[in-house]
TrEMBL record:
Gene3D superfamilies: 3.60.21.10. GO terms for molecular function: metal ion binding; protein serine/threonine phosphatase activity. Keywords: Hydrolase, Manganese, Metal-binding. Residues 152-157 form the Serine/threonine specific protein phosphatases domain. It is an enzyme of class 3 (hydrolase). Belongs to the PPP phosphatase family. Its cofactor is Mn(2+). It catalyses: O-phospho-L-threonyl-[protein] + H2O = L-threonyl-[protein] + phosphate. Its EC number is 3.1.3.16. The keyword Hydrolase applies. This is Serine/threonine-protein phosphatase. InterPro entries: Calcineurin-like_PHP (IPR004843), Metallo-depent_PP-like (IPR029052), PPP_phosphatase (IPR051134), Ser/Thr-sp_prot-phosphatase (IPR006186). It comes from Hexamita inflata.
Length: 403
């Protein structure tokens, strides 16, 4: 099989044994599971399937758009694509001594007087060699600490990628499971994995001001929704900014969308926008203004640094919005700060998109964005957030795939 895009690490390849797993799960037992994962133990397929099935049942009770309200001293930690690298989870929760990465702690932990709430922004699997551990651990955390552990669906949480049985670029998750359990009947586990993927919500908002979504946002266009009164498909009559209020009537429902890019123009255009689009276009500003969103945190783009796109109204507040400042690189924050220092009148009008990527499979650096509650509400300005460095891809020893 040997995909050319294999990012299996030496850690992934250390011999693994099957853990003893007690299905009476609790916050405490999940910590013990984490220690076992850390020490090269993995769950049996039966236990894995049990956990992801329980988690899917929980996720199905959530709306497409989960609205969060900050509480005093909350700390939101946004984790971008992890792409099958369990080492990212390790670095987040317990740090890494060898590379001096300080831990952020587990979901629900109180660190420096603030409580951790994690939002994992999709693309948990593929490319790396330990997506099995990531999915298992995060599902357990969602089951035992749901108020502190959130997951958005990414485009790899689909039958096209993560649950695909076809070998090829990016299609790695099923082969990772096959490598761990050579005798597995993949068709059976695949069904449960696909069901879990489809159960994940599309996006979260914090205090109705910060939107966290894997890909991007839809452009203004005719959209399909389902009428909740009669179940019929309806179209909005003319081009207008997409309203987040209608997201829970999205058609087809997320449980019917294992194939996200299946003829997106006619069937899944909105799904495509939220989970696939790389567009950082002016219409995002229209969307944000219409929905009262100040900042969007997205992932999906394999950015080697944090990438902030700042959208501003054109001179005089005219529509549509224009991208006035795009910065990329190590000095992103300095550049954005300088931009606004030179233009003090623009400070109140700015809308931002921040991209966060947390996997070493990207030939770049890994980050998480950290937002602290201030004065009873979230601060939506990305210049006030912390950017937690999780390491560089050079920290990891990748194993070359056999040809
Ligand atoms: Mn993606």
């Amino acid at each position: 099989m040997g995909s050319q895009y294999s990012y299996t690490t030496e850690w992934d390849k250390r011999p693994k044994s099957i853990m003893q797993f007690d299905r009476k799960i609790s916050k405490q037992s999940v910590r013990e599971v984490f220690d076992q994962l850390l020490n090269d133990q993995i769950p049996s397929l039966e236990d894995f399937q049990w956990v992801i099935t329980q988690a899917a049942q929980y996720f199905k009770t959530l709306p497409n758009h989960v609205q969060l309200q900050t509480k005093r001293n909350d700390r939101f930690i946004m984790v971008g694509d992890m792409h099958g690298c369990f080492e990212t989870v390790i670095r987040l929760f317990v740090g890494d001594q060898a590379t001096q990465i300080e831990p952020l702690g587990f979901p629900g932990d109180i660190v420096d007087g603030r409580r951790n709430i994690y939002i994992f922004n999709g693309d948990l699997v593929d490319r790396g060699g330990s997506g099995y551990q990531i999915v298992f651990m995060l599902c357990l955390l969602c089951l035992t600490s749901p108020e502190y552990t959130k997951i958005n669906r990414g485009n790899h949480e689909s039958d096209m990628f993560g649950a695909s049985l076809a070998p090829g670029m990016g299609h790695k998750y099923m082969f990772e499971i096959k490598e761990k359990f050579p005798g597995v009947d993949l068709s059976q586990i695949r069904t449960s994995v696909s069901e879990l993927f489809c159960s994940l919500p599309i996006c979260h908002t914090i205090d109705q001001q910060v939107l966290v979504v894997h890909g991007g946002v839809p452009m203004s266009s005719e959209v399909q929704t389902i009428n909740p009164l009669n179940g019929q498909i309806q179209f909005t009559s003319k081009a207008q900014p997409y309203s987040l209020k209608t997201l829970d009537n999205l058609y087809p429902s997320r449980f019917q969308t294992p194939l996200l890019e299946d003829t997106p123009k006619t069937k899944n255009q909105l799904w495509h926008s939220f989970l696939w689009s790389y567009d950082r276009q002016p219409y995002a500003g229209e969307f944000m203004a219409h929905n009262g969103i100040k900042s969007i945190i997205c992932s999906h783009t394999a950015t080697p640094y944090h990438f902030i796109t700042t959208l501003l109204p054109l001179e005089g507040g005219a529509e549509p919005y224009a991208i006035q400042s795009v910065t990329r690189g190590e000095d992103t924050f300095q550049k954005v700060q300088e931009f606004f220092m030179e233009r003090p009148n623009l400070a109140r009008a700015k809308l931002s998109m921040v991209e966060v990527f947390s996997s070493p499979t990207n030939q770049g650096q890994m980050f998480a964005s950290v937002l602290n509650e201030t004065a009873g509400t979230i601060d939506p300005d990305p210049l006030h957030w912390e950017y937690k460095y999780l390491g560089s891809h050079t920290d990891f020893r990748f194993i070359q795939p056999e040809q």
